[in-house]
Design a protein that fits this description.
The protein is of the alpha+beta class. The chain is built from 10 helices and 29 strands. It has 3 domains: about 325 residues, Alkaline Phosphatase, subunit A (3-Layer(aba) Sandwich), CATH 3.40.720; about 50 residues, no CATH class; about 160 residues, Sandwich (Jelly Rolls), CATH 2.60.120. α5 runs parallel beside α7 and α6 packs across α7.
């Protein structure tokens, strides 16, 4: 069992302890001076090695590094190999398969509606709650962040986005236009939320979407890196894409700049000392670059694919400069933050995570030698304090062999058997029916006005093709026959009238198609009467060539109002007449509830 070294906290006099005991018996009222604010920053595709704090001299991240200087840094903190599972584990305190998350797109990223989130926990306790950034755990309400405990939401709900400069985003379900570079914009909105709620406790979640591709960053950050000679390289330097690395590092320095802005804002509002600030990443790096010599990157259950920094600052409560040695994981953050803030956990389901608060107390603590499971795409890896059993059944001593080069399973047969059994138990008890999904896409909820129905979630029938093999932020094209159609297996939550807006593109020679939107017996017929033929774009801001879909500036057109009856069925978009060579290119339907 590992021992934890700590520094002393301020002592508490006995009269205050007595007073606290009396107050604990009274009904609790939240007070911004007593209940800490919470700011959680989660970055996307940033690896453990993408911080100067961890020894990378290719970049400088002084603001993020300051969180370790003024608070605690965790030596071995684990997340999932990819993004939506990590988000789900942070939000629920439970391994992601338990919540129904099995994919990163097309509905598989959604958390089951029976799950209660960290947003629910703090909202129920009277906190103002806001999320600003990439949600990636469901789009249609109540999978939407506004239905998962967040009063305020600004960002995008998909898994990645096609353009980072003033892109279309959403604010509490309504489509809006972003303002400038997306990370700067998200930070601005989050800081405005903090200022608006400075006199009451708030919980602000900032799931940034960089350095995930497309590789885009403002000139002031790119100019520093575009010709930079890199001093530190991956364990397999032949696989490095130098341009991609340079841009990823520039994006990380942009993140650091925005973290600095947040810390300055908290201080200027006079609430820095009573705000818990948390920083971590969602998976390993999205490219082959320096990562401390560890094996694996994004998508891998090896150490380099799932090790993330975790930095936590709360002046006067978490000792500055503390290095926490016991292993921890994203599943631990919900119980930890709830206990630090002294709020009850909303979920009645058993958590897989445990509170890390005892690790911040003074003195030495005997801490259980726990195990943490890493899983993705049927690969299961098990980590205890020193060893990792990988998905192939090989055992590695990470302390002695951080690069996972030597299988030591024969040297430690009892440990090998124990960890193997834990992996088998996880497969049997947690992964049973892992990707069996019959959940419909939800349309129209009595408590929410907007429903986005994107191409990402649709099924193309006939000749229709997706603009890219990665569904997130894609659109449909090659709609060349009246026999073609797009369908969504859906459920209308509340009978009512809904205004329908279509986001499309169509060249002038092909306008005139009659289109029909139907759900069971409910139908709406309209016509593509106005040409809109924008070019593909996005590459004008790319620093390196992307893999995902390029985007278009699609036009929003009113289809009219449809009355939908509550129940399950298939939402179908098809053409009944097509005078040209194609019907249109399709991006999105937006339904707005107007009446019962």
């Amino acid at each position: 069992m590992p021992l934890v070294a700590r520094t002393s906290l301020r002592t508490v006099c006995s009269c205050l302890a007595l007073y606290a005991g009396i107050v604990a018996l009274l009904p609790k009222a939240l007070d911004a001076n007593d209940n800490p604010n919470v700011v959680v920053i989660l970055t996307d595709d940033q690896g453990w090695g993408d911080l100067s704090l961890n020894g990378n001299t290719n970049l400088s991240t002084p603001n993020i590094d300051s969180l370790a200087r003024d608070g605690a840094s965790f030596d071995r903190f684990y997340v999932c190999p990819v993004c939506s599972p990590t988000r789900a584990e942070f939000l629920t305190g439970r391994y992601h398969p338990r919540s129904g998350v099995y994919s990163t797109s097309a509905g598989g990223e959604r958390m089951n509606l029976g799950e209660m989130t960290i947003g629910d926990t703090f909202q129920a306790a009277g906190y103002a709650t806001g999320a600003f950034g990439k949600w990636h755990n469901g789009m249609q309400y109540p999978y939407h962040p506004n239905g998962r405990g967040f009063d305020e939401y600004y960002g995008f709900c998909s898994g990645h986005w096609g353009d980072y400069f003033s892109p279309p985003l959403e604010h509490n379900g309504k489509i809006v236009k972003g303002d400038s570079f997306i990370i700067d914009d998200l930070t601005n909105k989050a800081m405005a939320f903090m200022e608006a709620n400075k006199d009451k406790p708030f919980f602000a979640y900032l799931p940034y979407n960089t350095p995930h591709s497309p590789m885009q960053v403002p000139d002031r950050f790119w100019d520093k890196f575009k010709d930079k000679e890199l001093a530190m390289h991956n364990r397999d330097p032949k696989k490095e894409n130098i341009g991609h690395i340079r841009c990823a590092l520039a994006m990380c320095e942009n993140i650091d700049w925005n973290v600095g802005r947040i810390l300055e804002k908290l201080d200027s509002l006079g609430i820095g000392d009573n705000t818990i600030v948390v920083y971590f990443c969602d998976n390993g790096p999205n490219g082959t670059r320096w990562n401390g010599g560890m094996k694996g990157r994004k998508g891998s259950t090896d150490e380099g694919g799932v090790r993330s920094p975790l930095l936590m600052r709360w002046p006067g409560h978490i000792p500055g400069g503390m290095k926490v040695i016991p292993i921890a994981a994203a599943i631990d953050l919900l119980p930890t933050l709830a206990e630090l803030a002294d709020v009850p956990i909303a979920s009645q389901k058993p958590l897989d995570g445990t509170s890390l608060k005892p690790l911040f107390a003074p003195g030495e603590l005997l801490w259980p030698n726990r195990t943490i499971i890493s899983h993705w795409n049927k690969k299961v890896s098990v980590r205890n304090q020193r060893y990792r059993l990988d998905h192939q059944g090989k055992l590695f001593d990470i302390k002695a062999d951080p690069g996972q080069n030597t299988d030591v399973s024969k040297r430690h047969p009892d440990l090998f058997a124990k960890l193997t059994k834990e992996a088998e138990t996880f497969r049997r008890e947690v992964l049973e029916g892992y990707n069996d999904d019959d959940r419909p896409f939800l349309i129209g909820h009595s408590e929410y006005k907007y429903t986005q129905i994107p191409a990402r979630d649709g099924t193309a029938r006939g000749n229709i093709k997706r603009s890219n093999r990665f569904p997130n932020c894609s659109f449909f094209s090659n709609w060349i026959s009246v026999d073609d159609k797009i369908t969504w297996e859906s459920e209308v939550g509340a009978t009512g009238n809904y205004e329908v807006e279509l986001h499309y593109a169509c060249p002038k020679p092909d306008i005139g198609s009659t289109i029909e939107l139907s759900f069971n017996d409910d139908k709406l017929v309209s016509k593509i009467a106005e040409a809109h033929d924008p070019p593909l774009r996005g590459d004008e801001n790319d620093r390196v060539k992307r893999q995902e879909s390029y985007v278009k500036d699609f036009k929003a057109m009113s289809l009219g109002t449809i009355q939908l009856q509550k129940g399950q069925g298939t939402l179908t978009l098809r053409a009944t007449e097509m005078p040209g060579k194609q019907v249109m290119e399709f991006r999105l339907l937006m339904l707005t509830r107007v009446s019962d």
